[in-house]
Amino acid sequence: MNLKEIKEIINLMNENELAEVELETEGTKIKLKKTSSGVTQVVHAAPVVHGASAPIVSSVPSQSAPVETTSGNNGKKREEIKSPMVGTFYRAPSPEAAPFVAVGQVVEPGQVLCIIEAMKLMNEIKSEIKGKIVDIKVENAQPVEFGQTLFVVEPV
Length: 156
Description:
The protein is mainly beta. Helix content is 8%, strand content 44%.
């Protein structure tokens, strides 16, 4: 793990108001913890000497996705729910689980729409509006960019 990656983790901690993150990847284990003054310190960083293991994943608070208003072919207003971060898009909480939402489904504010994995952190993306899902613009397990349209919703 290089200094750039550690700085990215610290930025994610600050953006998501995390007090502590522990991560194990590619033979390195690192634990970052904020002090009472808000300064992030490296508590432990050492090479891992045992065999390959699964990465340690910390959850972060849920996020609401940015919304942009457009008009559909039928003249109805449509909202585009966009990705608030770069990462990998997941429609369901696990491979064998049902998707959070489907086309035609009505969603409520605060309802989980998807998960975006960023740097081994699973971020629940929640709806800010009530509406019917008209289109899902991203395939499961595909990378997404910041500001990329994930869902198209007709407000109800």
